[in-house]
Fold this protein.
Amino acid sequence: MRVLLTGWASFLHGEATAGDVLSLSAARAALAEAGIDHDVAWSPGFRPGTLHLPDAPAGDYTHVVFACGPLHGPQVRWLHERYASCRRIAVGVSVPDAGDPAVTGFHRVLPRDDRGTAAPDLSLAGAVSAMPVLGVVLAPHQPEYGSAGRHDEVHPALTGWLAGLDCARVPLDTRLAHEDWQRCATPDQFVSALSKMDAVVTTRLHGLVLGLKAGVPVVAVDPVAGGGKVTAQGAALGWPVVAAEDAADAAVLDARLKWCLSPEAAADPPVPRLTALVDELVGAR
């Protein structure tokens, strides 16, 4: 017996969701524990350098297992055609139409959406590792800085670095809106969201300031050559800021993030006093 494990994360134009990948991992662990020889096929777009469906001929396997996701569409039907000589089993799947050839092509279907027979979703099996959660607040284009603005260089370098980190990334925007569910409606909501992060990565002044206000260490990067308002606020708050010229240096960013995730990085900004404004207004009376 030799099994090929597949799912939507196996198709070139499929989709690799967290649930899909965890379900495939659960199936893989179950087969390994049972001593059943198996391979996992991944999409080349998701995991290059691993086994892909074109490199897994039907003659190499006795069984094909499809884990997680809905059974429908031409890609699942193609799986039946390619592995017609194998016994095909679907596990932990949704069955929107029991008469669909994508469903009937399996010799056995173990669904997750049948009220009478549904078992807990496969993604619940196995442990997951706790990862750092980074709130990401990027500044928009700021034409007021003219040629000194390096946003088009800093942001690709910064987001490329973020993409390579083993962490959870949460895009956040300081802009508020009452009718857009994707945005916070009040400053309290936004700062509360920041407070749930392990660290904040930002090129925006208020990403720095409000991150510290929320008690969260901040990897602050100034997108303006020579230093703009982010650098000035960093100095006012006693918080280090990465210069635009260093934004492409992964070693600098790695070191700053490591420090932010350490107990040494205590976010305790000073409280501003508006005495200068009050004195100005009082003197004008």
The longest strand covers residues 87-93. The first helix runs from residue 18 to 33.
